[in-house]
Structures are given as C-alpha cells and as structure tokens.
Design goal:
Layout (H helix, E strand, L loop, with lengths): L6 E9 L6 H6 L10 E8 L5 H11 L4 E6 L4 H8 L5 E6 L5 E2 L1 H11 L6 E10 L4 E4 L8 E3 H4 L3 H4 L6 E4 H6 L12 H4 L9 E14 L8 H6 L2 H15 L6 H25 L6 H13 L1 H8 L12 H7 L4 H13 L1
Helix pairs in contact: 10-11, 10-12, 12-13
Protein name: Glycosyltransferase, group 2 family protein
Keywords: Glycosyltransferase, Transferase
Enzyme class: transferase
C-alpha cells in the first residue's frame, strides 16, 4: 500500500526481543479518533523472539497505520536512523517497545498537533514500577500556548527534559541530517541534545502521555547493565561533542542549554571513573578528555573547575587527575572522598 503523503504524528518504536511487551505497547496507540493521523514504525532490530510476528499482525490489521522495518541488530540508535528518513508525520515521537502511551491522552496530543505549528511539544510522563506503584512527573511550564524557546530554555523543566517528554517537528530533524550513534546503549540522550538546536517555538501540553516502565529485568537502565556498559556513555558523549561542533546556528540561550546538558553528562562520566571506580587509566576516559580539549576547549576548562562534592570536600579531582593520573595525592584524596560519602 502506498504511504499517505502526510500524517500528523510518526511514532518510532525500536524493538529487540520484546515479545512480552510489544502487543501492550502497540495496542496503547489505538486511539478512537484520528487513528489515520498516526504513522507507527516498528523497527525490528534483529529480534530472535516473536517480536517481528507481533508487529506484522498489526501491519496487516491496521494497514496504512502500522509499518515494519526489519533489520539486522544495530542497537537503539540504528533503529532511529532507519525510521527517521522515511517518517511522514509532521511530528515525530519515540516510544520504547517495553513502554506504552496513555491512549486517551495520546488522542488529545494528536488533536493538539493538528492545530498548532511549533518545533517542540512537551508532555508529561508516568513512571510505572514493576512492584505496581506509579509516579506522575509533570513539567513546570506555562501550558496551552506557544512559547519562544529562548525564553524558557533556562527553566529546570527544560534543562532536565527526558526523551519521554518530547515530540519534535520531523522536518527539523530530517533537514539537519540527524543521526544517533549505533551499536551502543544510552543514545536516547542524543535525542534531547542536538535536535534542541533547531527549536525556536515550543508548546507545553500538560498531559501524561508516556508511561515509562522501570525495574524490568535486563533493562539498560538497570544497575548490572549500567555497570557493564558504562563506557557506552563515553562513546555517546563523544558523539555529542562531534554534533556540538556541527550544530545549526542557534541563539546563545539555546547554546547555554546544550552546554549545560553536556557538562552534566561529562561530570557523571568523570565522577564515575575517578571517584566510584577508581579507574584512573581508563582508555575511554582518557580518549574523551583529549577529544574534549580539542573540540570544546571552554568545556574542557569548565570540567577542570568542577567540584564533585561541595562544600563538604572542595577538591578539583579532574584537574588533579589531568596533572598526574598516578599521583599519590590524587589517590589519597579519592580514598578520603570514599570514606566521607
């Protein structure tokens, strides 16, 4: 069937071995009104379970709404890269296959998207925990009107956006040639970085649209996966540094937002390797530090000034580490830091 020339909302669902969750995810998209305005791309990332068959059933039952991209495994970013060039919705939103949307509120989001013309729409989320409890998280922004992005990008709600909160104008991402790093986890952080450089107008719809599942065994945000694959954060951040060098022109306010997000990620990485793992010679960290100095000297200097635990323990660990990875003073202070925290 030929694709409809334009939809209102494209939803991209990266999928790898999600047979236990995918049907629930896809059924949450079956809105009563304006279903034809949706375009759902299920990107099967080399699954070895029934995920592909589940997706195919939806493409047959809801032809013209649900579509399947079947590809070899390339991890999360490769799924975004496969779907974004073919997305035909005026807006695009990501949904993980083990999560779902609040169906009634998705319908209200689509209704809103039909009537507004902005670069970014922000909505709220619900965290669903496997022990059965739920937590709603709401942004603190003026709702129901178009907002100049320059005027709100200093707000904590915008600085701390999750990928679950955002819906972008598709054309912005396609025209900037947006791509995510492939073959690694945690690239969702890129989704709330470089695309923000294209945002001039925003709209906050105070509805809980996204339901984010937490506590599932094998989840990438789980402790065991995070510890085993923490270096993926470094690879992703290297990619963000490269993106920062080639961003489209944007205001100083938006640059400030992106620098804030980048500095926060860098602080996490340095803190993890130096203060938690005591891995002073980690090759990923050394490579990141060298790239940072070459690509973003101002950020490099800002990291050197960071205090990891102020005011209790005012030590600039990154600067000390750069001076000498193996200095006794550095090792002694890191040990003392561990005793105090």
């Amino acid at each position: 069937m030929a694709l409809q020339t334009e939809k209102v909302l494209s939803i991209v669902i990266p999928t790898y071995n999600m047979e236990d969750y995918l049907d629930r995810c896809l059924s949450s998209l079956l809105i009563d009104k304006h279903l034809e305005d949706l375009e759902v791309w299920v990107v099967n990332d080399g699954s070895t379970d029934r995920s592909k068959a589940i997706a195919e059933a939806y493409t047959k039952r809801y032809a013209g709404i649900f579509f399947l991209i079947d590809k070899p495994n390339g991890n999360y970013g490769s799924c975004i890269n496969a779907a974004l060039p073919v997305a035909r919705g005026r807006y695009v939103k990501i949904l993980d296959a083990d999560d779902r949307f609040e169906t009634a509120n998705l319908a209200r989001l689509v209704e809103t998207l039909r009537t507004i013309d902005v670069d970014l729409v922000m909505t709220d989320l619900i965290k669903d925990y496997t022990d059965g409890h739920h937590k709603e998280e709401h942004l603190s922004l003026p709702a129901g009107r178009i907002l100049p992005f320059d005027e709100i990008c200093h707000e904590p709600s915008v600085r701390n956006l999750w990928m679950h909160n955002v819906t972008y104008r598709t054309r912005n991402l396609q025209e900037m040639g947006y791509r995510q790093a492939e073959g690694i986890s945690y690239t969702d952080q890129q989704w709330i970085f470089a695309p923000l450089s294209t945002v001039r107008t925003a709209y906050y719809l105070n509805l809980t649209v996204y339901r984010y599942l937490l506590g599932r065994e094998g989840q990438t945000v789980g402790k065991s996966h995070t510890n085993r694959n923490f270096h993926h954060n470094v690879v992703c951040t290297n990619n963000m540094l490269l993106q920062w060098k080639t961003l489209p022109p944007c205001s100083e306010a938006v640059k400030g937002l992106l620098n804030y997000k980048l500095l926060r990620r860098l602080r996490l990485i340095y803190r993890t390797y130096l203060l938690r793992q005591h891995d002073f010679d980690n090759p990923y960290l050394i490579d990141l530090d060298e790239k940072l100095q070459a690509l973003h000297p101002q950020m490099y200097e800002a990291c050197g000034r960071l205090l990891m635990s102020k005011p209790l323990f005012c030590v600039r660990f990154i600067r000390l580490w750069r001076q000498n990875h193996r200095s006794r003073r550095l090792h002694w202070l890191v040990t003392l830091y561990g005793l105090l925290h």
